[in-house]
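Section handout, structural biology tutorial.
Before the tutorial, make sure you can parse a SMILES string by hand: atoms, branches in parentheses, ring closures as digits. In the record below the ligand is LLZGTKA7, and the chain has 273 residues. In the tutorial you will relate the predicted structure tokens back to the input. Do not try to memorize them.
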Amino acid sequence: MTFGARFVAALAERGPFCVGIDPHAALLHEWGLDDDVAGLETFALSVVEAVAPLCSMVKPQSAFYERFGSRGVAVLERVVAESRAAGALVLMDVKRGDIGTTSQAYADAYLDPASPLGSDAVTVSPFLGFGSLDPFVDTARKHDGGLFVLALTSNKEGPEVQHARTDTGETVADRMLDHLRALNADASPLGSFGAVVGATIGETGADLAFNGPILAPGFGAQGGTVDDIRRIFGASAGQVAASSSREVLRAGPDHGAMQDAVRRANDDLRGLR
Ligand SMILES: O=c1ccn([C@@H]2O[C@H](COP(=O)(O)O)[C@@H](O)[C@H]2O)c(=O)[nH]1
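Predicted structure of the complex:
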């Protein structure tokens, strides 16, 4: 089953809310844990245990594990394996992108099921040129994985690059979305090549109608709301997984409170479908 098909099925069954598993130092302290590998492990696996059986997709942010070196990455490997075992899709948030030969190594690391970090999908950056992502595209096709390509990110600095005009007059973001349209052409029910479009973006005029999954980070702690998802995505809202990390994680360590936060977000977002 392709990633696009798994994404559609997971959102229909479990709801459109994606939980970011980002073990910030401040959150470890709020949970009464030390900011060390043992604290990271307790935090991350506790979040997995609480939310992975419930939500359609989890999105671990690799940076928060990498900061502990190889032992942190070992925890990330367990987050991937245990989340998938609990039935959640795993989107590895690493925003990789490099020249093609290096992109191939990244693609193998995150999209080959034989890799310890092999995930359902990975976030990638197209700002070395969309064609530099070809190894990710080919590897995703080979293993039925998915990509989420940065298009209109949730941070306030993004427009400097993403709203800039290309040689043909369209914005960089529009060009990226055009590439995604081409990659997903004819896919059914949805292609596997998604876009990252923040829940915080203002009026951009971008055409967000395309036949692929959309990740909307910035929901919750960064200020994005259900109304923003409705306003930004309109008729494409049914393809959106809205993602939040800190908002859910702050409800912990109580499992019930984190699960309630997931259920509430899913209920609110389901109204848009
Ligand atoms: O445009 C983007 C792309 C990715 N992110 C990532 O999402 C989470 C947001 O965390 P919150 O605590 O919900 O703010 C984090 O991992 C970012 O790296 C994003 O925010 N915006």
